[in-house]
UniProtKB/TrEMBL annotation:
Gene3D superfamilies: 3.30.70.920, Winged helix-like DNA-binding domain superfamily/Winged helix DNA-binding domain (1.10.10.10)
Pfam families listed in its UniProt record: AsnC_trans_reg, HTH_24
Record protein name field: ArsR family transcriptional regulator
A GO biological-process term: response to amino acid
Domain of life: Bacteria
Taxonomic placement: Bacteria, Pseudomonadati, Pseudomonadota, Alphaproteobacteria, Caulobacterales
This protein's UniProt keywords: Activator, DNA-binding, Transcription, Transcription regulation
Example of a GO cellular component annotation carried by this entry: cytosol
Listed PANTHER family: LEUCINE-RESPONSIVE REGULATORY PROTEIN
Domain HTH asnC-type, first and last residues per copy: 7-68
InterPro entries, A to Z: ArsR-like_HTH (IPR011991), AsnC-type_HTH_dom (IPR000485), Dimeric_a/b-barrel (IPR011008), Tscrpt_reg_AsnC-like (IPR019888), Tscrpt_reg_AsnC/Lrp_C (IPR019887), WH-like_DNA-bd_sf (IPR036388), WH_DNA-bd_sf (IPR036390)
Keyword Transcription applies: yes
GO molecular function: sequence-specific DNA binding
The keyword Transcription regulation is assigned to this record: yes
């Protein structure tokens, strides 16, 4: 399946079910989507090969694994050159506490989503990792008080 191929209703149904339950058996998936197991398996394989499905994972409870504090950080760089952007991106990818890092347009350069045990651990991360990345001029930290909605499921 090439990226320009349009998904049909069955493909979309398969993707919705798999997003909700990546461990569903092929037989149950086929049943829920009105397909034979063989046709279901073929379609899922094509969706994976076409890059529509990029992987499967387990969703962990952040509290139970010692990562209960969610933090967003705005990062302003001192220069906006390709070299500084690349250097920052390399270091952000290496930092285990960073779950997501996005270059954004607007009043700052990057938005980071991080998870840590507590604010003391965040302070250590900020001082020993984040502000030591070459090019970082300024950060603004936003600890999350309540997660109103958190989802990885895309509407398809």
């Amino acid at each position: 399946m090439a990226e320009n191929v349009r998904l049909d209703d069955i493909d979309r149904r398969l993707l919705r079910v798999l997003q909700a339950d990546g461990r569903i058996s092929n037989a149950d998936l086929a049943d829920r989507c009105g397909l034979s197991p063989s046709a279901c398996s073929d379609r899922v394989r094509r969706l994976r090969e076409g890059g529509f499905i990029t992987g499967f994972h387990a969703t962990l409870d952040p509290q139970k694994v010692g990562r209960g504090v969610l933090i967003f950080v705005e990062v302003v760089l001192d220069r906006t050159t390709p070299e500084v952007f690349e250097s920052f991106a390399v270091e952000a990818r290496r930092a285990a506490d960073i779950l997501e890092c996005h270059m954004v347009a607007g009043g700052f350069d990057y938005l980071i989503k991080a998870r840590v045990r507590d604010l003391a651990e965040y302070r250590t991360f900020l001082g020993e990792v984040l502000v030591r990345i070459p090019g970082v001029r300024e950060t603004r930290t936003y600890p999350v008080l309540e997660e109103v909605k958190s989802s990885t499921q895309l509407p398809v």
